[in-house]
Design a protein that fits this description.
Elements lengths: L6 E6 L5 E8 L20 H13 L4 E2 L4 E2 L6 E9 L2 E8 L6 H21 L3 H4 L1 H18 L2 H24 L12 H11 L4 E9 L3 H7 L1 H15 L7 E7 L2 E9 L4 H14 L5 E3 L2 E3 L3 E8 L6 H17 L5 E3 L2 H11 L1
Parallel strand pairs: 12-13
Antiparallel strand pairs: 1-2, 1-6, 3-5, 4-5, 5-6, 7-9, 7-12, 8-9, 10-11
Helix pairs in contact: 2-4, 7-8
């Protein structure tokens, strides 16, 4: 059986926010920035997912999908099984192609369906209070599925495919395929490596979101949108900072990390934005269909001052970026812990 098949077990609320991840594979299936169930799926299937979630919450039954839902990355079709309990939704997904022939498909779907029914009939609190048991039971299901498949018949084909996937994945981990910047799968390691050379120093992380980018895709098409993103990335690389890492986080979101400050000041933060305006936003981007103005919103957080955790560093900059966007766009905001805590409390 292909060891790289896709599967996951996650929990969502009624708004499709991911509230818990019991497991997922491959490792890049869910990133820290994918907070919604819809983020996992291709644009063409997001409406189907919304309909399934709505049906799961409105009907007291376990819902199965026939494997016609495509993930965004990796681009594979999966079979879903959903079960609601109060304001929670438990979702199991497995790559449809690994279910084998029709006989095996029916057996595996029946196993998953029966187990989720046991959870629903016996202890609905299991969704939130006993993650270890859920994980263990579903691992047993996957072991049964492994036994059902013909290992000798699959091993040669699986090894060949695995080698290709490993090669492709190694390339993807380092560079974003479209822009050539550091990819979202490698940004943490790159930042930690840079910090490791001088851990006593501070650094600035800038979270950049292109304003109104959706309008370019909608009016000019995705090819023009890709050209726009590539030019934006090329301009980022022209910024005159040492120890700088440029990365594409997702879609029209980019990151910039600069390390080596003795003590980051507000003037240092302002200087980063000044250089972005000068070298990235100073002129329109030329596309085949004509010129398009470029604006972006930015949020900045400081390593060594706001936090020393890389994920928190990026989340804080993301928060500050949305403050800038909500205050009128095409500007920047510096992270403030008090405002962040106030916002979190208001959400809870």
């Amino acid at each position: 059986m292909d060891k790289e098949y896709t599967s996951f077990l996650i929990q969502c609320d009624e708004k499709m926010n991911i509230t818990n991840t019991f497991w997922y594979r491959p490792i890049y299936l869910i990133s820290p920035y994918q907070r919604s169930l819809l983020d996992l799926f291709s644009d063409s299937d997001k409406t189907k997912v919304e309909q399934l979630v709505l049906k799961a919450f409105t009907k007291d039954e376990i819902l199965s999908c026939e494997g016609l839902l495509k993930l965004a990355s990796p681009e594979v079709n999966i079979a879903l099984c959903m079960m609601s309990s109060g304001d929670k939704l438990l979702i199991h997904g497995i790559q449809f192609s690994v279910l084998g022939d029709n006989k095996n498909t029916g057996v595996v779907k029946d196993l998953v369906h029966r187990f989720m029914k046991v959870i629903k009939d016996s202890d609905t609190d299991l969704l939130s209070e006993n993650e270890t048991m859920i994980r263990y039971q579903f691992e047993q299901i996957h072991k049964l599925n492994n036994d059902l498949l013909n290992m000798q018949r699959q091993v040669k084909k699986a090894n060949s495919r695995l080698n290709k996937l490993n090669k492709d994945l190694s390339n993807r981990l380092v560079k974003d395929a479209l822009t050539g910047l550091v990819s979202r799968y490698q940004y943490r390691e790159e930042i930690e490596l840079t910090i490791g050379h001088s851990p006593e120093k501070q650094g600035i992380f800038t979270f950049l979101d292109i304003d109104d980018f959706k309008g370019i895709n909608d009016t000019l098409g995705h090819r023009a949108g890709d050209d726009f993103l590539k030019e934006f990335a090329a301009r980022l690389l022209q910024l005159p900072f040492e120890n700088m890492i440029c990365m594409r986080i997702a879609g029209d979101e980019f990151g910039l990390y600069i390390h080596g400050y003795d003590n980051v000041t507000e003037e240092d933060i302002a200087q980063v934005w000044t250089q972005i305006k000068k070298l990235v936003l100073s002129g329109p981007i030329i596309l085949e269909s004509g010129e398009r103005a470029i604006n972006c919103s930015a949020g900045m957080s400081v390593y060594g001052k706001d936090t020393v955790d890389i994920y928190d560093l990026i989340e804080y900059a993301d928060f500050a970026m949305y403050e800038a966007k909500n205050s009128g766009k095409n500007s920047y905001s510096q992270f403030n812990l008090d405002r962040y805590r106030t916002k979190k409390i208001s959400i809870l």
